[in-house]
Amino acid sequence: MSQKTIITTAVVIIVCIVITGLVFMIGNPGFLNRESSGNGLFPESEIIPQNTIAVTPVPVGTTFKDGTYTASGRYNSPAGSETITVTVTLQDNVITQARVVGNADHPKSKTYQSLFIQGIGSRVNGRKITEITSLGNVNGSSLTGFGFLAALKSIMDQAL
Fold this sequence. Notes:
Layout: H1 3-27, E1 67-77, E2 80-91, E3 94-102, H2 107-124, H3 144-159
Antiparallel strand pairs: 1-2, 2-3
């Protein structure tokens, strides 16, 4: 086989691969706009968009009482409604320790709650409670943070 034939064959194969990839992306419009959901236990189409929590901005100078506070937070997952229990220790408006207990029954939800629990401390410990207004993806868990924020809102109300 000549060098020209080999190059022509290689170009044809590459063009076929590119066309196949384009056809795949056109047939899956959400493919390019996907946020990483960690380890992919739930397909993107199963993510429930009803999770919203508004953490009302606290007026400048608001002081929270030092102490340890506990609250539950509810959020929606593909497996249904889930809850976590959050315990936060506050000192001078700063979270010195955050602990989370997962309450999920569904195996995939348990996995995501476990991932969240492993990663949340590094995201909130040492930060002012008023700075925690959104979390996004925590250690591969993109939904459990909504439950954390719901619990944190309740904790802020308790600590006023």
